[in-house]
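question for whoever is on the cluster today: can someone run the full assembly for these? two chains, 224 residues total. i dont have access anymore since they changed the login thing
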Amino acid sequence: GIQVEQSPPDLILQEGANSTLRCNFSDSVNNLQWFHQNPWGQLINLFYIPSGTKQNGRLSATTVATERYSLLYISSSQTTDSGVYFCAVGAKNRDDKIIFGKGTRLHILP
Amino acid sequence: EPEVTQTPSHQVTQMGQEVILRCVPISNHLYFYWYRQILGQKVEFLVSFYNNEISEKSEIFDDQFSVERPDGSNFTLKIRSTKLEDSAMYFCASSAWSRPSEQFFGPGTRLTVL
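^ ran it for u. tokens below:
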């Protein structure tokens, strides 16, 4: 099955800093989503981005499907950005399960 | 904005007991899913459900697990005889017919088996 690798596994930054989180996947996909898991455990949809670039406020994401990676950019980090960021992909021609990476744990210091 | 809801938010049960976790997917969605996340680990797929039947299940989803859509709005996960290792956060998700690959997750039910 598809393998999803996220890096770095952990990231500690000062408030106001920018960060780039990476997601590599091993096969063609028809879906890629980024989620933020907040300290209460909720999974918040950030982006549905099987290809191209999207922006939402201080967050943006880019997926280069042909090279099998996606990047999540967080600018001007705030303490509320802390949590775990997951990338999840769905296999080409499949509309059922999505496969999650192990996540990047982000801690923003005040 | 429509969202997936789950009840209860926390469930504590004794080993060997049956539990039912409940989900109300987004109202016009047709694809439904259960995932679980053991504490500190990644989110794992359990089962997908479409057109009133299971479309895929993982090896985790053994005979102790079952899913049901008892009416037009609820989607349930039943664990027949809970084990200690079933302790986890269980997430329900749903997706639309027009874009089945984009899944929306509920807030989760934290299950603790003692």
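summary bc i know u wont read the tokens: The mean pLDDT of chain A is 93. The CA atoms of residues 51 and 57 of chain A lie 19 Å apart.
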